[in-house]
Amino acid sequence: MSDILSLSLEDAAAKLKAREVSAVELAEAALAAAQAANPALNAFSAFDAERTLAMAKASDERLGKGQGGALEGVPLAIKDLFAVEGVETAASSNILKGFKPPYESTVTRKLWDEGAVFLAKTSMDEFAMGSSNETANTGPVTNPWRSRDSNAPLTPGGSSGGSAAAVAANLAFGATGTDTGGSIRQPAAFTGTVGAKGTYGRCSRWGVVAFASSLDHPGPIARTVKDAAILLGAMSGHDAKDSTSLPEKVPDFAAAVGRSVRGLRIGVPKEYRIDGMPAGIEKVWAQGVDWLKQAGCEIVDISLPHTKYALPAYYIIAPAEASSNLARYDGMRYGLRVDGEDLLSTYENTRAAGFGAEVRRRILIGTYVLSAGYYDAYYLRALKVRRRILQDFEAAFEKVDAVLTPSAPSAAFETGAKSDDPIAMYLNDVFTVTANLAGLPAISVPAGLDGRGLPLGLQVITRALDEETMFAAGAALEAASGFDARAEKWW
Amino acid sequence: MSVTKDDVRRIARLARIAESEARLETLTGELNGILKWIDQLNEVDVTGVEPMTTPVKFALPMRDDVVADGGVRDKVLANAPKTEEGFFVVPKAVE
Fold first, then answer.
1. Mind listing the pLDDT tens digit for each residue in A40-98?
2. In 10 A of CB B86, how many CB atoms?
3. Phi and psi dihedrals of A48, rounded to 5?
4. What value of ipTM does the predicted structure carry?
5. Domains identified in chain B and CATH numbers
6. Domain A3-240+250-259 belongs to what topology?
7. How far is the alpha carbon of A453 from chain B, nearest alpha carbon, in Å?
8. Does pLDDT of A377 surpass 60?
9. Nearest neighbour of A243 by CB, restricted to B1, B14, B60
């Protein structure tokens, strides 16, 4: 039964439809594998086996009648940022420990409507703030991948690290993630999985715990580009409950997978060639350029001149929005309350005890850059730099159809290696954060292994609303690389 | 720009987070490291650039002013730290 868990989502869905395997059998196998792996990987924060089996049973009934949605009977893991009615949803934070939402997020509702089965909640960096999945209140997640020369635990990246680890270890056929500065694509790159986000507003943020609302993008993590396209299609669509949700029709993303890329113009931005980038990443990037050229693409050297300012601008805008969003955690209506002598000290004690060090640090930065006397110098300036970054892309997309870059500046690093240096940690998102600031579709596809046998990813960024070109180019890279390496099971 | 320990104390108060004197010291160093790194934004010419608050290009949608949800008091109270007879119980707020 463990073999069946290594199938792609697409193949698993086909076997379910053909009744070669039942949804209950699949759910039982996935639950057993996930629960057995959790002491070693710590990817999951909450299970609800009764719900999983009940949903699988309902899927079997529908499948038995020849009915069912695109994801009928497929077990999926859900990042702990998405509200699942009645299941603990804590954003991996002590301030929300034990919180059971009395409502369902739009994205998970859409997945269940297509017949998907809830497998488990996945652990993440607290409030999605991090790149190593070390700050969860349930402890760090360990990457299923290990270096050839060491057994030291590696981070799966973050903040959707639990989701990425679960998919990489064949414990789930796919998972939801969220990407505010790279939190889907960087962990996908670190775990040899595919991670994608659509245009800002494609997926509703309703019922997703807010971090930085103008940057937060829900999206999938999967093992193939086709699976990611199927999942993003199911997660997307207009939602009146999110005022920034796009009132646009959702194209058939999966149909774009396998589409010819002949004649596509691919931009290679010189600013993404940064000092100190490992040779393995240079190599895989050059290889990617070559693969697309051989597939008939035209390669164009481009410039995105404000790239180096994206991260510093992000570290004003994201904390500013977070400080405002996280003001709701006051210990009154839900979540932790730590009583003090009066109302003010109750607020202060609650938030000091409930938020971890990185979350508090970001709230303080955000509070500072929004405070009287500093707003113009920091926040307003960062918003103007953000527009410059968007203008860079708009100019580039007059000449090219897609941009090809590495996904992350390194392979997976050892757990704890960057915990004491916030800026070194922030630099993980140097290649991904620009697409969040500009709100553009972007995907990370595994493209090869480095000298230590660890996966490296390539990123494709496209125009707003052109996820189809993103999936077509991503699939071309996937086909050319023939990447089929999997983490060797040690857990 | 940089912050002093007193600035950080004031910011923590504004953010309603209790930080010890020792933590304020550490945070001052950390925040100054981050602010120094952020200062490179001053190199960018932003004359005449419109601030960008969102990637969304359409105006915020309006909806009819009608009740769309409600009547779920018990659900609203279900996660509260303290409730009594259908109400939230909070610390005394007015002397």
1. 999 999 999 999 999 999 999 999 999 999 999 999 999 999 999 999 999 999 999 99
2. 9
3. -150, 80
4. 0.97
5. 5-42 (1.10.20)
6. Amidase signature (AS) enzymes (3.90.1300)
7. 33
8. yes
9. B60
